[in-house]
Design brief:
It is built from 6 helices and 7 strands. The protein is of the alpha/beta class. It has one domain: Maf protein (Alpha-Beta Complex).
Length: about 220
């Protein structure tokens, strides 16, 4: 039986490899979006709408089933910010994209500034995954994953990226940037959303389990 081909709505090979591993329980071949496909606008105020827009965009340009994610950090004291703007939280309107490490540093600095003197520091990461059989699919599969914790008073740890140095897991007493990558990936909001999407793809699209799972 051949793997089910699904286009992942990203041109990032690292993200493709990550999601291929996370969906490893299924016979799925995640295809990387061709660099010639124009970037999809993400104008919406919710993770679901942005993920749905990206999946439709990828499917319409490729004619194949598509999978897209939208994720970010939501801080309770900031009414859910940075939210869908997490990746460019500290970017000025019209400003060209900065190198990732520089943008991450600015985002973290702004988050700490806005939480200065604030006692309520609970936060959570969210990941929304959307899968479509075709661009006009009336029944998109939608999976959610959350990871709860709080924002530290200062960065800690050298691993990870984004807000990882500020996000503390209470049960571990460490930031995500202080965890071993394998442990972080096992606990992550993306891993939890992918586990839910694995069940949906098998149940509703009939995607077959991997040969390893069938042998058990």
């Amino acid at each position: 039986m051949h793997p089910t081909e699904i286009v992942l709505a990203t041109g990032n090979p690292g993200k493709r490899a990550e999601f291929q591993a996370l969906l490893g329980g299924l016979r799925v071949d995640l295809l990387q979006l061709d660099p010639s496909v124009p970037e999809c606008p993400e104008p919406f105020g919710t993770f679901v709408e942005n993920a749905l827009a990206k999946a439709r965009h990828a499917s319409s340009h490729t004619g194949k089933p598509a999978l897209a994610d939208d994720s970010g950090l939501c801080v309770r004291a900031l009414d859910g910010a940075p939210g869908v703007l997490s990746a460019r939280y500290a970017a000025a309107d019209g400003e060209q994209a900065l190198p990732r490490a520089e943008q991450d540093a600015r985002n973290n600095e702004l988050l700490l500034q806005r939480l200065q003197g604030v006692g309520e520091r609970r936060a959570h990461f969210v990941c929304v995954l959307v899968a479509l059989r075709h661009a006009q699919d009336p029944e998109p599969l939608i999976a959610h994953g959350w990871l709860h914790g709080h924002v530290a008073g200062a960065p800690a740890g050298e691993a990870g990226f984004g807000y990882d140095p500020l996000f503390v897991l209470p049960q571990r007493g460490l930031t995500l940037a202080q965890l071993e990558p394998a442990e972080k990936n096992r606990l992550s909001h993306r891993a939890r959303a992918a586990a839910q999407m694995t069940q949906l793809l098998e149940a509703f699209w009939g995607v077959a389990p991997s040969a390893e799972d069938q042998a058990i």
